[in-house]
Design goal:
Layout: H1 4-21, H2 35-53, H3 65-88, H4 97-108, E1 113-117, H5 119-129, E2 136-140, H6 147-156, H7 162-171, H8 175-182, H9 195-207, H10 210-221, E3 225-229, E4 236-241, E5 246-248, H11 250-256, E6 260-266, H12 274-282, E7 285-288, H13 293-297, H14 304-312, E8 317-320, H15 335-346, E9 352-356, H16 362-369, H17 380-386, E10 389-393, H18 406-414
Parallel strand pairs: 1-2, 1-7, 2-3, 7-8, 8-9, 9-10
Antiparallel strand pairs: 4-5, 4-6
Helix pairs in contact: 2-3, 5-7, 5-18, 7-8, 9-10, 12-14
């Protein structure tokens, strides 16, 4: 029996056959709810033209011409509107489209910002930047060797994926995606791993390389910008201490708890992504931090090509000093000590340094003191001697933690552009 469904299948096969020869005819596929509205709009255009033609000389306008022209205009507008809604409904709620288009176009005109670092500090900067620009590039350190990331590095020979996942979630347009990427499994062989970490491992195997996997992740998650590794190679962080001893691996460096003279990558990477170098050249603003000085910020630009690109980039370089010291890493460091370590490893002085100088609540200070973490001391005099501009103020987010507020921080940073 000839049913409605079999009729549609037959029409679909015919339309598909025609579309192979004439691709624009794909709009003739049945069930798309486009042809009917296109026909309605066409009828409206015809009536509108016919009605308006009756006003042209030599014949005088006929009384019904106004009605035909008005009816044609209404049919044309209604048909085009219905056709647009039908097509847009396949992707999103049509009512949301004007707002989304406006936001996207406004953000596309925002400044080009390249932010370096890793972990929580960089992801907080990205959350603030995505409200002002869609031209953010995050260049993320990939030397972490603890927790889930460390296990995956050991099993698959990958760069560290944890901080990359945090930054991918921070730049995503959908808050739900960030929560999904952060989901941590609590049982079985996957216990301790996050969904985002496993996603990057899966993409790496499917794409045949870590650089390709990261680009795939950027495309899948529809970011307001892009997230790139400092290097797609599986490197580790090494540290040379003031007493001449060395340690390799972030976990080992923190456990050593000595005064660090310099850090380096093992082995020295041979590859950086071309997209990262292009973003640095085009940037209006370069941002370092906030985050752990030796295990997040410095490793994000240690690969030679990145250091050279940063040293030659015309954009201003801003460094955001941590609110608190890091035990086993920056014990006793002042804001100026942080700045000097950046300048030494980069070969370029940051033109601007942002320092939080507002009081931190006593309850927060006591909580951090139990972890041997203390506010970073600030003295403006050595910065003045070096001719460095310092921006001070309240950059802390209200709450029980000593963390930078994304909105406050980004307002200060974008004021430099």
């Amino acid at each position: 029996m000839w049913t409605r469904r079999s009729k549609h299948q037959g029409l679909y096969r015919v339309a598909k056959g025609l579309a192979r020869r004439f691709p624009p005819l794909r709009w003739l596929y049945p069930g798309m709810r486009v042809k009917r509205y296109a026909a309605l709009a066409g009828l409206g255009a015809g009536l509108l033209a016919y009605g308006l033609a009756r006003f042209l000389p030599p014949p005088p306008p006929e009384p019904w011409a106004w009605g035909a022209a008005l009816l044609g205009l209404l049919l044309l507008v209604g048909g085009v509107r219905a056709m647009n809604r039908s097509m847009l409904s396949a992707f999103t709620e049509p009512e949301e489209v004007p707002e989304r288009v406006y936001v996207r176009r406004r953000l596309e005109q925002g400044p080009k910002v390249v932010a370096f670092g890793g972990g929580t500090g960089l992801s907080r900067v990205l959350r603030g930047l995505k409200e002002h620009t869609a031209n953010t590039t995050a260049i993320v350190a990939v030397t972490d060797d603890g927790g889930s990331t460390g296990r995956l590095r050991l099993a698959y020979g990958l760069p560290a994926v944890g901080d990359l996942v945090d930054c991918l979630g921070a730049l995503s347009e959908r808050p739900a995606l960030s929560h999904l990427l952060d989901h941590r499994f609590d049982r079985g062989e996957m216990a301790g791993h996050t969904f985002g970490n496993l996603l990057l491992v899966t993409l790496n195997q499917a794409a045949g390389g870590f650089a390709e996997a990261i680009l795939e992740a950027n495309a899948i998650l529809n970011l307001r910008g892009q997230v790139l590794p400092a290097t797609p190679e599986a490197v580790r962080l090494g540290a040379r201490f003031q007493d001449g001893s060395e340690a390799v691996g972030e976990v080992a460096i923190r456990a050593r708890r000595g005064r660090i003279r310099e850090v380096f990558l093992v082995p020295e990477p041979e590859e950086v992504m071309a997209e990262a170098l292009a973003a640095i050249r085009r940037a209006h603003l370069l941002v370092l931090g906030p985050g752990s000085l030796y295990t997040s910020i410095l490793p994000s630009f240690l690969p030679g090509p990145l250091r050279e690109a940063l040293a030659q980039a015309p954009a201003p370089l801003a460094y955001v000093v941590n609110l608190m010291t890091e035990p086993g890493e920056t014990d006793g460091y002042t804001a100026y000590d942080h700045y000097k370590a950046i300048a030494y490893h980069l070969g370029r002085r940051p033109e601007v340094v942002l320092v939080h100088t507002a009081p931190i609540p006593e309850g927060v200070l006591r909580r951090y003191a139990e972890e041997e973490r203390f506010p970073v001391p600030f003295d403006p005099r050595p910065f003045a001697v070096d001719g460095v501009r310092v921006i001070t103020g309240d950059f802390r987010e209200e709450g029980p933690l000593a963390q930078h507020d994304p909105a406050k921080l980004v307002r200060a940073l974008l004021g430099l552009v």
